[in-house]
Amino acid sequence: MQAYPTGERPVGEAVDVAVCQRVGNLRAVAAVRWLYGAALCAVTLASCWSPYRVPGAQVAERHLVAKLVDPAPAKLEVHVHRGHVLVQPGDQLEVVADIEVSAADREEAERRAASVRISTESFDGTTRVRTTHPEGAPLDAVHARYRVKIPDSVALQVLAREARVALRGPRSPVQVTTESGAVDARAAGGTWEISTVSGPIRLEGAFTQADLKSETGRIDVSLDGSELPEPTLVAESGSGPLQISLPPDRAMRLRFTTVQGDVRSELPVRWTTNGAAAEGAARLYDGLLGEESNAVSIDAQVHTESATLEIRRLPAGT
After folding, report:
1. pLDDT tens-digit profile of 97-128?
2. Cβ neighbours for 238, distance < 8 A, ≥ 6 positions apart
3. Which pLDDT tens digit goes with each residue over 251-261?
4. Predicted structure pTM score
């Protein structure tokens, strides 16, 4: 049974207990407490099951399809403040969004949702897509879930603040910039440029070139066994840890600079430069990682301020 500090017992329970105590019926006291607790639980459960249980969290939804003036631009820009962006390869360019808009009451939420549009504009071969914002609504009142299908001929740029970005195999050049949103990318070739402030970055698969940067977010890179030309990786981190994972039959050429960080490797290491002073206060590690018989599968340049770089060996058959 829930305990209450002196003088803080709920009014209804205090009154009922007092009445029962006056007549000396201790069983009635226990019964009243049990009934009060049951009623409280029922009310709590009812509020949890209600989708609009908390004032200020009323939500209205809309499904929108972008009307693209140019169906085959050279580049697509997607701007989103809060929500999620899913990108997949497709034969034709397609942009749709499910929008959730919150307000203090249902009527206001529906009014705001009715005013939301996907705004598109085209200029110099670029199509820019963004969600219009309801008048008078705070930025966090709109949550947009974008789904983008993009052909190989269209480059992609995503600019987000709190949105999560998931990319599933686009082969065109990709640029992603977020603040706190996580970026999860599965590459099937192409070039990748991903930058966050605190959001984690994960890139796996095969790519020709990747440039990854985060101030405090974690960076994970995992290469598969695809037979592509030797890829180039440039990664930079402030304090977020970095991890690079390689198939067991591959090696890596690494140039690693750090101010206060370190490097750890599950692979054999052959340093040509081991912790020598570099530019500023940084130290330089330069060499090959992996078995001598393994082909070099990646050329990596990594810089950290205080983060540790970890090199892992993937299980056989990965």
Report:
1. 999 999 999 999 999 999 999 999 999 999 99
2. 214, 215, 216, 304, 305, 306, 307
3. 999 999 999 99
4. 0.79
